[in-house]
Amino acid sequence: MLARLKSNWSYLAIASLFVVLILAPFHWFLGQYTTLMIFIGIYTIVTVGLCLLMGYTGQVSLGQAAFFGMGAYISAILTTTYGVNPWLAMLAAAIMTGVFAYTIGYLIFRLKGNYLAMATLGLGLIMLIVFRQLNPVFGEPDGIPGIPSLSIGGFAFDSPFRMFFLVWFFCLVILFISQNLVRSRIGRALKAIHGNESAAESLGINVTQFKVKILVLSAVYASLAGSLLAYHVPYVGTQPFDFMASVRLVVMAVIGGLASVWGAIFGAGATRILSDHLLLGFGDWDVVVYGFILVLVMIFMPEGLFVKLKELFERLQLRYRKKGAGP
Amino acid sequence: MSSAQFVQCLINGVTPGSIYALVGLGFTIIYAVTKIINFAQGEFVMLGGLVAYTLIHRAGIPLVPALLLSILIAAAVGAAMYLLAIRPPKKASVVSLIIITIGAAMFIRGIAGQELTKDFVSLPSFSGEEPISFLGAHIDPQVLWIIGAMVVVTIILHLFLNYTMVGKALKACAINPVASSLVGINPKTMALIAFVLAAAIGGIGGVVCAPKISMSYQAGVMLGLKGFVAAAIGGFGSPVAAVFGGLLLGIVESFAVWISWGPFTSDYKDAIALVVLLFILLLRSGKLAEEERTG
Q: Could you report the per-residue pLDDT of B182-240, keeping only the tens digit for each?
């Protein structure tokens, strides 16, 4: 009975999410915040990958913005300088980022914990320096302008209204794929690795291979999101891919509940809304708020804010039901 | 390369190298006692510089008391960070602790940017601007302060760890926290002392380098990273090794910039430290994995 109710609730939640998503880009509904919703969609894609890597598998990445940036830069360079079709460029970026992640994965997963964190941080900063060198070669000193829009046939995704649907289409597809992934054998293997690597290995799970695979997956997600960002803005600079960006992605994953796929929307949403200058006007205080949230969440609910809130909600629901079913 | 250029290059490397060494010392102390990599280590350096600047320019406090006060404030922030953020969680995993120290770093950086200053600032030199000639090279007197501070801190730390009761207790706790708590050493108190020491050393680094390199609230990330490289070269074991790591990194950077070409020298400089970092981590990965298992 409880299970059925619970699933009813989650259907309701998903349905209302869909209603909001469909209405969001109309001007009378959210107005100027359509762009904010696009960014939330894009960051959700990156965050899902990071949740799979950090929350399910227990591997820290402080350089996720590097993959995000690779997607954006490869797409930007291929389309502006070489005139490649945007869709092909996006695919090429995803493949190249995936291959890159695969190559470094075998190297950096010889490290664990603190050292892995530092290695990914270093890698992220190296890629940032590379991006900075690419700017003047393929565009202007500060970035690459004039990236074309994605289009299907004659239909170009050139306005926020159109881009919104494309981004959220990608976002939802990736959320569903990830959801299925974590409920499969692979997801259970990842959780086993998080719990105890030696035990997982003794059960016949190839620990390094799984870690590398999930790194590649998260890198491909980040790359796709990066490409979408490049086609949306349509300008690529280094600012969205610096160290703070990587940390911000970690904040999103932590708020979203590390081990929760759907929490990623919540994490990316809450974080983007916090830094949105129009909506809340925290201005540059957002960094302080992020730091505060990170410390608080990690002290009191290391499984992540969203997961804790969900638990709380379910407990309340249970109590309510008990009252209702009483004599 | 003439001998004068060589000496100049060496000095140009030893100066930032001394700062990296001080940050590396902080990393090593905290890691030895608590097995935590403190991602906020660079923020203490930034705090030392910016707090001193604010005290001098906004509160009108004379240079010397301002410097001492800002080192104390950095140490107090270190203590607060340990007591409020690191100590409360019970049985925190490595990942949680990393995220906590990053959160604390962001918090400190954000507050510094909002409440102290958002500009690039520098302090007045401690003893004039007149360069000193040495073997054909011109040396800013502040450089002598920086190197001197690093040497003095290292010697005092060495004496403290080896010849005082508290220092020996710290070492004991670093070697085996359980056994040391059996002989009456409280590992939590030792961790607090480690954080205060590391923060104070960072603060000292901040105040001595602020006249030479302009400091901003965002400087902590790169300083922290390079200090980490210094500690990693030193192997996270002994403080003296971290100091040599820092000096080595500074000198390598300085010579690499001298031989490199093109307009992006400062970028290349940072890239060197990062590549060194990755190499050391990967070369030592076997030993590091061992440490994580046993430690």
A: 988 988 999 999 999 999 999 999 999 888 888 888 888 888 888 988 988 887 778 88
Domain ranges of chain B: 3-121+140-294
Whether residue A210 lies inside any domain: the answer is: yes
- Closest residue to A126, CB basis, from B104, B271, B282: B271
CA terminus-to-terminus distance, chain B: 47
Residue in the structure block whose two tokens are 């971290």: B242
- When scoring A50, A51, A114 by the number of chain B Cβ atoms within 10 A, the one with the most, hence best to mutate, is A114
Rounded-to-integer distance, Cα A227 and Cα B157, Å: 51
CB contact (8 A) between residue A119 and residue B107: no
Domain span including residue A208: 35-243
Using DSSP bridges, classify how beta strands A143-144 and B137-139 pair: parallel, antiparallel or unpaired.
unpaired
Enter the CATH code of domain B3-121+140-294: 1.10.3470
Q: How far is A119 from chain B (nearest CA, A)?
A: 6
Q: Tell me if B69 sits within 8 A of B170, measured CB to CB.
A: no
d(CA A128, CA A68): 11
Tell me the pTM.
0.85
CB-nearest to B92 from A54, A294, A302 is A302
- Look at residue A222 and tell me if it is in a domain: yes
Q: Is the ipTM of this complex over 0.90?
A: no
Number of domains in chain A: 1
Residue A145 inside a domain? The answer is yes
> What is the sign, positive or negative, of the torsion defined by CA atoms of A274, A279, A284, A289?
negative
Does A280 reside within a domain?
A: no
**Cβ–Cβ below 8 Å for B92 and A288:** no
